[in-house]
Amino acid sequence: MNVVVRCESLCRTYQEDAYPVKALDEVSFQVNDGEFVSLAGPSGSGKSTLLNLIGGLDRPTSGEVYLGETRLNDLDATHLSDLRLFELGFIFQDYNLIPVLNALENVEFTMQLQGVSAKERTDRALATLESLGLGDLAHRRPSELSGGQQQRVAIARAIVTRPRVLLADEPSANLDSKSTEGLLVLLQNLNREQGVTIITATHDPMVMRYARRRVQLVDGHIDADESAET
Amino acid sequence: MKLLVQLSWRNLWRQRRRNGMMLMAILVAVGSLVFTNALIRGYQYDMLEDAILNLSGHVKVLAPGYRNDPSAESNFTVPGQFHPDIGPEHLFGWTSRVVVPAVIISERETRGIQLVGIDPADEQNMSFLAKATIEGTMLSSPDDKGVLVGKKLVDQLNTKLGRRIVLITQGADGLNREAGFRIVGTYDASGTSVEKMFVFAGRETLQTLLGTSAVTELSVRLVSEKNEIQVKEALQAQFPDLEVLDWKELQPQAGAMFEFSDATILIWFVIMASALAFGLVNTLITGVMERVRELGMFRALGMRPNAVLLQVMIESILIVVVGLLGGLIIGYMLVIWMSGGIDLSEFSQGLEMIGIRSVVVPRLLVQDIVQVSVLTTVLGFLASLYPAVKAVRIRPLDALRK
Predict the structure, then answer these.
(1) What angle in degrees, to the nearest 10, is found between the helix axes of B305-337 and B366-392?
(2) Which of B64, B102, B68, B75 is nearest to B173 (CA)?
(3) Coil vs helix vs strand at A228
(4) Ranges A171-180, A199-208, B122-131: which has the least confidence
(5) Which pTM value belongs to this model?
(6) In angstroms, what CA-CA distances link A217 with A168, A187, B122, B142?
(7) Phi/psi of residue A176, each to 5°?
(8) Residue A145 or residue B379, greater confidence
(9) Are B69 and B187 in contact (CB under 8 A)?
(10) Which of B96, B132, B168, B291 could form a disulfide linkage to B103, CB 3.0–4.6 angstroms apart?
């Protein structure tokens, strides 16, 4: 198995009201190609911080983060942007769709940034939306979609570029249980059928059940790391 | 780039009221700027035309010392076959005159004037006489024995058309000469000061009175003032011992006012543009602050910092360009609407003192439209820099936490 994510002695300290707060403390961790990992733990345990460091959205106070062979610590803002664009896919808790673009344009957005041709872009975006059951809603704006539909558009946007790793931060936080189940089946299929590596930060037990590996964080430390059959 | 333009354009429609107000401000500012520029240009070119037609011409040849002591003694001879060495496409007309200070005496009053000996045929292309309303008759030839007097001067002298007046001046030999003339015509020019200043006689008649066959000036009128420098050089080559001066040197006050008009246009633009810039920066900053989370998300998804910068700048440029085009149309329509001129005759006496005609006709120059367009676009670009840099400084993680 290839290692796609590697964290070594990762520390992240925030400054809050002049007091340093350690969100992550000497965390070492790696994810292999094709894994579906859930980072679980209570609020403040450091799971989102770890996800942000892996996604290049934040920089560690000390320690190292690798995506494949690339050491993220060495990259400037522009190179980190390119890395996020070409190597990673993001699913956010609040979907974060672009309100002025319709579903199809939202899915095309990252491909446009990548410079994919217009025809290929549209073909791939439509195919992805259809595979997620959103073919009929392609021309609707986010405000005209339900929460579950918006989250599926966000997933389409994240996977349409065929990223090496899909990062999902509390993807079920704003969904009801039915929509959550649909989302998780979708992620599971992506992982199993297309081999997409998924790392999700969550405190939702349902999400944890679908993941094939569960990493439990407590107070910035990895408390448990176990594989599970789903 | 297409994506950035698309995002920018749609973002503008998100805040229709706010951006609409900004657009209106640009429309009004550019429209009024174009119209005000046209008015200033109208005044400026009226002033230039008046200066040229009030016997200056664009370029004039004078004997050395004439400007300090404008008498018949400072004269020169124009060769019989002379023609200005200027391409016919640049030359509107030329003439030689005898201009001397004189005293005019009627049966009741006495006044100091400029006595001008002219060839009446030449003046049709050269001076305000072509447009002036003449009561009685115009001088018929250089040897006409009558004089043409301004209407206001006739009033001051308490005389009238057909009456005789006496002119006293100094001859080419420095001795006083006087002669009686009949007023064959009175002229009504647009400026009362002109009517009080110039009395016209036939050039040959005046030369006979002064005892000389020479002239005191050679005046050249051009198709456009842009060729003044070449024409000056050409005339200087033809008259190496004489002074060759352009209208700004002959009428420095009018020249200074002409250049001040250029400066006024620029100053007016800077004032308008500064006010506009604050509004634009405020609108864009508000737009950026409202979209912090969205801009952070763009960055999180892989949009490069310079693309974020560009997106905010395109928004600014789009609103400015739309406002600019609308403003130019409004300004143009105002100029067309006022093309008959704005009547300021109620203030005509005061205006005349500073060289403004009683009816100002706006004049739209291509160079002014280009200047407003270029400077406004540059303004849009500069005004967008601060909000754009602020947008780039948004850290994706901080933005997503909001």
Answers:
(1) 150
(2) B75
(3) coil
(4) A171-180
(5) 0.71
(6) 16, 22, 102, 112
(7) -80, 175
(8) A145
(9) no
(10) B168
Q: Which of B3, B13, B302 sits opposite A85 (nearest CB)?
A: B302
Q: How confident is the model at residue B169 (pLDDT cuts 50, 70, 90)?
A: very high
Q: Please state, in angstroms and as integers, the Cα–Cα distance from residue B228 to each residue in B52, B155, B221, following that order.
A: 12, 38, 10
**B259: closest CA of chain A, how far (Å):** 50
| Chain segment A145-193, per-residue pLDDT in tens | 988 899 889 988 988 888 889 999 888 877 778 778 888 888 888 888 8
Would you call A81 and B397 a contact, using CB atoms and an 8 Å cutoff? no
pLDDT at B360 over 90: no
Contact A92 B297 (CB under 8 A): yes
CB A202 within 8 A of CB A182: no
Closest approach of A100 to chain B, Cα-based (Å): 6
B400: chain A residues, CB-CB within 8 Å: 57, 92, 96
Q: How far is B22 from chain A (nearest CA, A)?
A: 20
pLDDT digits (tens, 9 = 90+) for A73-114: 989 988 999 999 999 998 887 788 988 889 999 999 999 889
- A77 and B305 within 8 Å at the Cβ level: the answer is yes
User: Judging by beta carbons within 10 Å of its beta carbon (0-12, 13-18, 19+), is residue A82 exposed, middle or buried?
Assistant: middle
> In this complex, which of B10, B297, B303 lies closest to A113 when CB atoms are compared?
B303
SS3 B69: coil
CA distance B388 to chain A (A): 16
pLDDT of B355 above 70: no
pLDDT for A11: 92
What is the rounded CA–CA span in Å between residue B8 and residue B84? Answer: 60
Which of B13, B294, B400, B401 best tests the A interface by mutation, with the highest count of A CBs <10 A?
Answer: B400
Closest chain A residue by Cα to residue B393: A77
In a mutational test of the A interface, the residue from B397, B398, B401, B402 whose CB has the highest number of chain A CBs within 10 Å is B397
Q: Is pLDDT above 70 for A28? A: yes
Its ipTM equals 0.84
The runs of H, that is alpha helices, within A4-117 are: 47-54, 77-87, 103-114
Cross-chain Cβ contact A81/B11 below 8 Å:
no
